[in-house]
Amino acid sequence: MKKQIKSNELMLHTLTRVVTFIILAFSVYLFFAGHNNPGGGFIGGLMTACALLLMYLGFDMKSMKKALPFNYTTIIAVGLLISIATGVSSMLFGYPFLTQFFEYYQLPILGETELTTALPFDLGIYLVVVAIALIIILTIAEDDA
Fold first, then answer.
1. Looking at residue 53, what DSSP letter applies?
2. What is the CB-side half-sphere exposure of residue 8 using CA atoms within 13 A?
3. Residue among 21, 85, 25 at smallest CA distance from 54
């Protein structure tokens, strides 16, 4: 009878959590900087997908599916609906599709802050990119052939 050796991956799990946090923080920065600087929903979504894929690599698939019980196909649909609704909303006011509006508001903690309609559009793109990247990679990873 063979004795099974249980691997101790404490260092891998700890580093994965730290690096994932750093990548997620950077992806949030890229997401919010996107309408004025390089970045936005696409790049922020790719960075988030990379962080989540790192978690899938560091931990087993079963525990990650338990921790992230999302239906990625539904997330794609929600992201597309948000992006399309943002574009169509400008048409309701007589402007061309995807016309961007922005205004500065005085917010209690943040002070003067620019709010723009590009942010919900970027959110939709962000959700689509994260979900598609995860579906593609996880489908390839789960292939037993």
1. H
2. 1
3. 21
pLDDT in tens, the chain (145 residues): 666 666 678 888 899 999 999 999 999 988 888 777 777 889 999 999 999 999 988 888 888 888 888 999 999 999 999 999 998 998 998 999 888 888 888 888 878 888 888 889 999 999 999 999 999 998 988 876 5
130, 56, 64, 62: CA torsion to nearest 10: 130
Task: Find out whether 44 and 126 touch, Cβ atoms under 8 Å.
Answer: yes
In the chain, the N- to C-terminal Cα span, in Å, equals: 30
Tokens, residue 93: 């006011």
Residue 33: exposed, middle, or buried by beta-carbon count in 10 A (0-12, 13-18, 19+)? Answer: middle
| Both structure tokens of 105 | 């508001």
The tokens for 12 are 């891998």
The helix or strand, by DSSP H or E, that contains position 66, with its residue range, turns out to be helix 61-67
